[in-house]
Amino acid sequence: xxxxxxxxxxxxxxxxxxxxxxxxxxxxxxxxxxxxxxxxxxxxxxxxxxxxxxxxxxxxxxxxxxxxxxxxxxxxxxxxxxxxxxxxxxxxxxxxxxxxxxxxxxxxxxxxxxxxxxxxxxxxxxxxxxxxxxxxxxxxxxxxxxxxxxxxxxxxxxxxxxxxxxxxxxxxxxxxxxxxxxxxxxxxxxxxxxxxxxxxxxxxxxxxxxxxxxxxxxxxxxxxxxxxxxxxxxxxxxxxxxxxxxxxxxxxxxxxxxxxxxxxxxxxxxxxxxxxxxxxxxxxxxxxxxxxxxxxxxxxxxxxxxxxxxxxxxxxxxxxxxxxxxxxxxxxxxxxxxxxxxxxxxxxxxxxxxxxxxxxxxxxxxxxxxxxxxxxxxxxxxxxxxxxxxxxxxxxxxxxxxxxxxxxxxxxxxxxxxxxxxxxxxxxxxxxxxxxxxxxxxxxxxxxxxxxxxxxxxxxxxxxxxxxxxxxxxxxxxxxxxxxxxxxxxxxxxxxxxxxxxxxxxxxxxxxxxxxxxxxxxxxxxxxxxxxxxxxxxxxxxxxxxxxxxxxxxxxxxxxxxxxxxxxxxxxxxxxxxxxxxxxxxxxxxxxxxxxxxxxxxxxxxxxxxxxxxxxxxxxxxxxxxxxxxxxxxxxxxxxxxxxxxxxxxxxxxxxxxxxxxxxxxx
Length: 667
What we know:
With 667 residues, the protein is of the alpha+beta class. The protein contains 18 helices and 20 strands. The chain folds into 3 domains: 107 residues, no CATH class; 171 residues, no CATH class; 239 residues, Transferase(Phosphotransferase) domain 1 (Transferase(Phosphotransferase), domain 1, Orthogonal Bundle). Helix 7 crosses helix 10 and helix 16 runs antiparallel to helix 18. The protein is globular and about 75 Å long. The two termini are 46 Å apart. This is Fungal-type protein kinase domain-containing protein. It comes from Postia placenta MAD-698-R-SB12.
């Protein structure tokens, strides 16, 4: 019968497909109580693997809807036999009602649907600052393709953004959020010339809900969050700055946490493509646009160029934020924020050869060094995804050629925020975190040396993936798994630990990637391995191990990740771990050599390698592509890159830094 009907091509595209982009309230039906995500009926069944998977299933539904819709929150109904529960999802978690028998008492269900029919889109959970683009606006975005060559990278980005089935939306940002890098630099230069200090922007930032380093909002305040008056942020005669977005090029695969989405966007004001990132930062985290302001004022090189950014203010004049934390303990308030930058970076994996890889890493090292030495900002998430290639190389103010930039400063910390006496936290991408942070969580603060070690791991990781070495496929997969992916729960603290193989490697003075061919790249790997060995020779790891093994169980531990820990299959995102330490005098001090106490030796090693002339076209096909199920090639970026394969996203373990994995498989 179906075959005999004449369906249009558009109709065929919709057959047997779940339209996540059109779903308002998902309803999950379960006929088996043992397979329901929560308890139903009179008997409280045991917590089973089936129930855990069922909760993962409804979390996946919420994720898919949030990926395709610009949502602040989401309602859901779960029904098992004759009972139902209502759920409300936002980026801090899900609120679940008690089960009720809708046969005996249908009123709650009737009332819910009646009120749902009377509610506005904003009351349904849709973001009022995002509206459908009109036909003329979409035509402008479409016409921009004609200005780009067929093989142009930006054309591919635009085609992906306008993929069929993804409606074009208009994101509206306040004129108050538009920034000027030139003004920042001019203000900094004027301060240098006159000898005066730049104006304090902390009060202005706080007026619009931004937190400044060291402010009370960074001190773990538990109130619902900042409120913004209409007079402060909405009473403006200026029209909003508008950007058109379609399919995200990067998105989170978790319904909770930062919920970062990245878009190649069309700027209606300039008629150019830009990169727009939306996220839900913890209230105690630094505002990324404020960090960029400080970096630019300090003259930090090799970073992105912001256009606008800040907290998102709703139609009620208040900053958009989560509410789940009002009902769950130890859950941070999350604030909706956006950032728009000029650069649409290529993923680092697109480098052409070893020389380009080393050059890109050197650019990122320069940015990291400048940020620390000039602005006292530590990035804390050096990874394969956060170092991006410029589409076209840029000439810096000092005349140097910049081919890459260091991105994603949302987990950074200012120097005065590092090393709390009672709480240390891990932040970063699991594969590239230092051995110490992986193996001894909570015993050592995140330092410059940890980020420098991460640069070494990024270089080795790409060499294992794209350069000729002496590891056959099966052995390579096992090596990558043991070095970069293994994670297990500590029986006492219940924290995820790893890094044992990585620590042994750091102490050996041997690089992770043993290349076949001699040359500058192989020499650099060997020199960095020696530096790592010298660095770890000054650290008493035995004392750290003894202290870690003897720590009491931490009652403050909270891991909000919904995923199972299956080493080698999917590395979980670890959300919000508060590390309760013994008293300060009981914490072993990390005595380090001077090797990684500054950037000097690492920068020199990279710069010297680039001075060599014997660079060859040595990049191979992706050697991770043939890995069996159990480890993966990578995942989508959550930054200004647009590739779907590279290093996995970060695994922060601080109450104020809860992140997520992206939509593709996670290493």
